[in-house]
Amino acid sequence: MTNNIFNLRELGQTIRSERKALGITQAELAKKAGLRRETIIQLEAGENISAHTLLQACTSLGKCLRIDDVRLDYDRLRETFDEV
Question: Can you tell me the distance from the alpha carbon of 9 to that of 2, in angstroms, rounded to the nearest whole number?
């Protein structure tokens, strides 16, 4: 995702790309995740969905979510200013 900024639309596009890379349809992903196809459509469109739904879809794609610390530590902050 761009600049480590949380963006639902980009997340949805990533989910869509991963689904297509696996060669499965929205209906197939929905069935595998125990969700409705309409929910997968909403997810891929970047609409607001529950965390539980997101985790079900990701798990069904063989993916997981990771929490990264995007706060700048001293070294990263210094690098940022040195680039300017």
Answer: 11
Look up residue 11 and give its two tokens: 């997340």
Q: Which amino acid is at 4?
A: N
Q: What is the pLDDT along the chain (84 residues), one digit of tens a residue?
A: 444 456 899 999 999 999 999 999 999 999 999 999 999 999 999 999 999 999 999 999 999 988 877 776 777 777 777 776
User: Domain extents for the chain?
Assistant: 2-83
Q: Looking at domain 2-83, what is its CATH homologous superfamily?
A: lambda repressor-like DNA-binding domains (1.10.260.40)
| Global pTM value | 0.74
Where would I find the H helices in the chain?
Answer: 8-21, 26-33, 37-44, 51-60, 74-83
